[in-house]
């Protein structure tokens, strides 16, 4: 599930910047804090009297919605009150101010982490995604929330057996020769066990935590109430779309049959990538709460020691990862939303001994709208070439408007200097430093002038389509992996991205034109542009692109038909 950032770096910094003026009036501060306590108390009473009951009537206080809401309300009050009062006697933009701001961020992040661990389930899912937004949240938040990936709840064996019994109608011994009690991995919504079927096949069986389904809808109500309270107290926090995204996405992730269909779709879609491994689904042993699939072993994609031990080429892995996601984003518009290291394994294929990337957890994919996808293709082409007029043009189409320069920096996580020169020609420099805790590059040009950029960034994030927020999150996760592998900003990454963009644009143009003459022109132009890209990169032309060399001989025919340049460009 993808939950974009409910507390952005920009919003937190903006609120902090305004606290000095805000806190000059002690009475309004106390009044607003008092109102928030009253709202929390009133909402708690409403929840208590509404008759929420324990899931399956088990005597566990954590299952009571009033308890879960009480924790969330208390945490919201403490964090809000801290931001309101902490800067009352500190002069803005002083060394003391920034040191205090970091401490407030850290205290708030720790409170949020503790809330997620206590309420578990949906709350941990939200916290995990927040921890992945390195470029959009303060470091104190991301470094603190990242631990949630290792603190997911674990259901007991009795609970797992009960879910299997209810959904498959059989006992474990009737379905499996062996079933490992210790899970291979646990997540916020489910856990995975290794088992062996009676026919000898080794499988991974993903079983949903029994209480998640019942708690998820009520947790969404709790989050909605909290967000409304924060928005009332801090008007700049205007992001109720967070709840809308959660309401839309969570039911999809809780339906494991949907996950199985997504896995099969992406496996067919990217079948031409020999290096991609998507586990097979065993439908006869799968339900909405249970997904049984082929067991795939391997090391996490960011584990350099594992790769070294098994003779896996780090650069090959990074290049193939870029190919895979470029294809999903630019060509097909069907994007795996959660490429964190736990969902991407690397291994040597037991049969062919070739290096493979295993893509796991297919619970949520985003379908990009065609117009959005095409404009995003054109934007990246312009960014790679450093064509600022085109960057401005396609940023405008994507909603950035006059903030296109800032938008380009956010999309690429690169400085304006690098963007202006063309990101493919400018290596990552020391001015784009690595953050020690999050291991991601953050541009010093922006980091050192946050106050100057606050209004623009806040406005930008409110302008762009929600699909863009998903891609920003995906980009952050992929860059984190590349940074760990020390392969970020390699030329092959941009070459593969450009190939996918060219193919996507050509495919779009063919779909818009019925003329066979125009189809020939577009196809020849596409082939020539791909061939030029290959030659400019100094690469050996892949076998799949060998026909491009043959088509070079008809270059003059292409130009004659088109009456000029053969370059591919999307038509309006």
Short structural summary:
With 572 residues, this protein is of the alpha+beta class.
Structure notes:
- This protein is an alpha+beta fold.
- Helices cover 57% and strands 9% of the residues.
- It has 24 helices and 13 strands.
- The chain has helices at residues 9-22, 26-49, 65-85, 95-119, 122-131, 139-145, 157-168, 172-175, 212-233, 241-253, 256-269, 304-309, 314-332, 370-385, 388-397, 404-412, 416-421, 444-447, 450-463, 466-485, 491-512, 516-536, 546-551, 555-562; strands at 176-179, 185-186, 190-197, 202-208, 276-277, 290-294, 299-300, 334-336, 344-348, 355-359, 365-367, 432-434, 441-443.
- Strands 1, 2, 3, 4 and 6 form a 5-stranded antiparallel beta sheet that branches. It has a 4-stranded mixed beta sheet with strand order 5-10-9-7, with helices on one face.
- Strand 2 (185-186) and strand 3 (190-197) form a beta hairpin.
- Helix 3 packs parallel to helix 9 (212-233).
- The longest helix is centred in the N-terminal third of the chain and has 25 residues, at 95-119.
- The two termini are 34 Å apart.
- Residues 1-33, 43-57, 433-443 and 539-572 have low confidence and may be disordered.
């Amino acid at each position: 599930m993808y939950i974009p950032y409910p507390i952005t770096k920009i919003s937190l910094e903006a609120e902090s910047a305004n606290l000095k003026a805000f806190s000059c009036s002690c009475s309004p501060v106390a009044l607003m804090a008092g109102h928030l306590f009253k709202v929390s108390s009133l909402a708690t009473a409403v929840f208590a009297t509404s008759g929420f009951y324990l899931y399956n009537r088990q005597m566990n206080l954590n299952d009571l919605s009033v308890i879960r809401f009480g924790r969330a309300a208390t945490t919201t009050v403490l964090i809000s009150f801290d931001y309101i009062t902490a800067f009352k006697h500190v002069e803005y933009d002083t060394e003391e101010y920034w040191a205090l701001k970091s401490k407030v961020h850290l205290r708030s992040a720790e409170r949020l982490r503790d809330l997620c661990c206590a309420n578990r389930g949906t709350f941990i899912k939200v916290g995990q995604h927040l921890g992945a937004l390195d470029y959009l949240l303060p470091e104190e938040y991301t470094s603190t929330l990242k631990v949630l990936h290792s603190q997911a709840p674990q259901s007991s064996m009795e609970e797992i057996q009960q879910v299997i019994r209810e959904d498959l109608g059989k006992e474990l011994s009737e379905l499996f020769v062996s079933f490992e009690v210790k899970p291979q991995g646990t997540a916020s919504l489910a856990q995975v066990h290794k088992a062996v079927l009676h026919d000898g096949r080794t499988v991974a069986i993903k079983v949903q935590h029994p209480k998640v389904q019942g708690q998820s809808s009520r947790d969404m109500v709790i989050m909605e109430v909290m967000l409304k309270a924060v928005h009332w107290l801090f008007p700049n926090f205007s992001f109720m779309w967070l709840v809308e995204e959660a309401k839309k996405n969570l039911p999809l992730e809780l339906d494991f049959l949907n996950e199985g269909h997504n896995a099969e779709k992406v496996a067919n879609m990217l079948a031409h990538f020999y290096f991609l491994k998507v586990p097979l689904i065993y439908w006869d042993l799968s339900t909405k709460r249970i997904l049984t699939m082929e067991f795939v072993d391997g090391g996490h994609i960011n584990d350099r020691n594992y790769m070294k031990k098994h003779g896996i080429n780090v650069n090959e892995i990074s290049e193939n990862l870029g190919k895979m996601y470029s294809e999903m984003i630019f060509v097909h518009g069907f994007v795996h939303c959660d490429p964190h290291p736990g969902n991407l394994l690397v291994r040597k294929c037991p049969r062919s001994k070739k290096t493979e990337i295993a893509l796991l957890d297919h619970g949520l994919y985003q379908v990009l709208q065609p117009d959005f996808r095409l404009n995003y293709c054109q934007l990246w082409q312009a960014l790679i070439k450093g064509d600022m007029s085109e960057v401005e043009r396609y940023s405008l189409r994507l909603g950035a408007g006059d903030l296109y320069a800032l938008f380009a920096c956010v999309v690429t996580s690169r400085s304006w200097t690098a963007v202006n020169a063309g990101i493919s020609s400018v290596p990552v420099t020391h001015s784009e430093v690595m953050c020690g805790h999050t291991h991601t590059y953050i541009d010093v040009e922006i980091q050192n002038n946050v106050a100057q950029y606050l209004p623009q960034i806040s406005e930008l994030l409110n302008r762009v389509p929600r699909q863009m927020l998903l891609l920003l999150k995906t980009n952050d996760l992929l860059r984190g992996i590349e940074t760990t592998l020390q392969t970020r900003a390699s030329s092959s990454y941009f070459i593969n991205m450009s190939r996918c963009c060219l193919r996507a644009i050509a495919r779009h143009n063919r779909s818009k034109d019925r003329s066979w003459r125009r189809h020939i022109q577009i196809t020849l132009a596409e082939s020539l542009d791909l061939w030029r890209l290959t030659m400019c990169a100094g690469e050996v032309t892949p076998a799949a692109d060998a026909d491009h060399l043959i088509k070079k001989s008809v270059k003059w025919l292409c130009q004659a038909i088109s009456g000029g340049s053969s370059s591919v460009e999307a038509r309006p």
